[in-house]
Write a structure and sequence with these properties.
This protein is mostly helical. The protein has 17 helices and 9 strands. The strands form 4 sheets. The chain has a 3-stranded antiparallel β-sheet with strand order 3-4-7. A two-stranded parallel sheet has the order 1-2. Strands 5-6 form a two-stranded antiparallel ribbon. Helix 5 links the parallel strand 8 and strand 9. The radius of gyration is 30 Å and the shape is elongated. Bound molecules: glutamic acid. Glutamic acid binds next to strand 8.
Length: 420
């Protein structure tokens, strides 16, 4: 049975690169009816950060990348935190020491390298060779009582019966060391697949100083998890029909490692914005309504949200833009005076709108346009002042729609306030 894993270290926040690796592991497991394991690599005690573990769980759960075994839910091969597996590592160290395949060196333990060439058939990159001498006698157990990454990862993968190791390309140089340990222990090695490193528009590796990499940033900026997942699917992988918008289920259905490309995919936030906008247009209005309601923590009433959605759904690229486009529909903003004729325009608009008996879209349209004609205003200037007076902004959804939804009393109130 296929068993894959991710092994993030709780050294900060949930990184979008972890989500990317998780996504490809998840898809591979689901496609093959296998299991996806979450294991925490927390033996570098000094680097562990409080709260990072929770951030990883929350970030992956938000994206719908759920795991079958892990520290929080347990499983047949528990424990899933390396810090709780120290006894196990020590036993294996003893075994290697006893058989002469490792030796003590100043309190640490080193693996005795046989210097034979090591190679594997990488599922993404084809065969990779490493000359044995390049590996050397490396440390597998540190004098502080903790195993090194290269050792612990192998022991865990053996005991957790991992069949495929799918991880970032930055680990390629670790792989020959890990293979040497499998060989020394007489264990069958798993398949390896090294995913390309995500790069920003300058082709540099994503970094937390330069790029948005913390999953919470995407969440708080109003990206939909489905859209972020879709975006990540397209990094280094392409849909066989060149489709750009598809869901996780379809990705799982079509996924195979052979379609993953080696070249570093570009993490282009413009593309993410586009995909997110597509999702906001595509998903049913009632769902968008709930997403907006929850995103703004109940600040805006659902009924009003749903009346405004049709006005903004085509322009919104993420949920924060709902507020920038339509926030004025919920609360008054400081009016903006755009043209020199502001006073005249607003007085005339007040006049036209206050005369409307039955508050309907058509009556609003006609009342305003007749006024523009009879006063000889420039249409564009008139509507710009009207818009800016009601919203405090030069850019809004169609202003007559907004006027209709705001209601007569509120509109007249705002117009008169903007003349003060
Ligand atoms: N902690 C490592 C990482 O997150 C694990 C690498 C591995 O999967 O072997 O990159």
């Amino acid at each position: 049975m296929v068993r894959v894993r991710i092994a993030p270290s709780p050294t900060g926040f949930a990184h979008v690169g972890t989500a990317y690796t998780a996504l490809f592991n998840y898809a591979f497991a689901k496609k093959n009816g296998g299991k996806f394991v979450l294991r925490l690599e927390d033996t570098d005690i000094k680097r562990n950060v409080e709260g990072a573990e929770k951030a990883i769980y929350e970030g992956l759960t938000w994206l719908g990348l759920t795991w079958d075994e892990g520290p929080d839910i347990g499983g047949k091969y528990a424990p899933y935190k390396q810090s709780e597996r120290l006894e196990t590592y020590k036993q294996y160290i003893e075994r290697l020491l006893d058989s002469g395949m490792a030796y003590r060196d100043e309190g640490a333990v080193r693996f005795k390298n046989t210097n034979s060439e090591i190679s594997w058939n990488d599922k993404v990159r084809g065969r990779i060779f490493f000359p044995g001498e390049e590996i050397g006698d490396f440390v597998i157990f540190k004098s502080d009582g903790f195993p090194t990454y290269n050792f612990a990862v192998v022991i865990d993968d053996i005991l957790m019966k991992i069949t495929h190791v799918i991880r970032g390309e930055e680990h390629i140089s670790n792989t020959p060391r890990q293979i040497a340990i499998y060989q020394a222990l007489g264990e069958k090695m798993p398949f390896f697949a090294h995913l390309p490193t995500l790069r920003n528009k300058d082709k540099k590796k994503l970094s937390k100083r330069r790029d948005p990499v913390d999953l919470r940033i995407f969440r708080s900026h109003g990206y939909l998890p489905q859209a972020l997942v879709n975006f990540l699917c397209l990094l280094g992988w392409s849909h066989p029909k060149e489709k750009e918008i598809f869901d996780l289920g379809e990705f799982v259905e079509l996924f195979n490692l052979e379609r993953v490309r080696k070249a570093g995919p570009i993490f282009d936030t413009e593309k993410l914005n586009w995909i997110n906008g597509e999702y906001l247009r595509k998903i049913p209005k009632s769902k968008v309504k709930n997403q907006i309601f929850e995103f703004y923590k109940g600040k805006y009433p659902k009924e009003l949200i749903s009346r405004i959605i049709p006005l903004v759904q085509n322009r919104m690229r993420n949920l924060t833009e709902f507020e920038s486009l339509a926030g004025f529909m919920f609360e008054r903003k400081k009016p903006l005076r755009v043209t020199d004729s502001f006073e005249w325009h607003i007085k005339a608009a007040f006049d036209a709108l206050s005369g409307i008996k039955k508050w309907e879209r058509q009556a609003i349209d006609e009342g305003l346009i007749n006024k523009v004609k009879s006063e000889g205003f420039k249409t564009g200037d008139f509507f710009m002042d009207l818009r800016a007076s009601l919203s405090g902004s030069r850019v809004t959804p169609p202003i007559n729609d907004c006027i209709y939804i705001l209601g007569k009393d509120e509109v007249l109130e705002r117009l008169s306030l903007s003349l003060k």
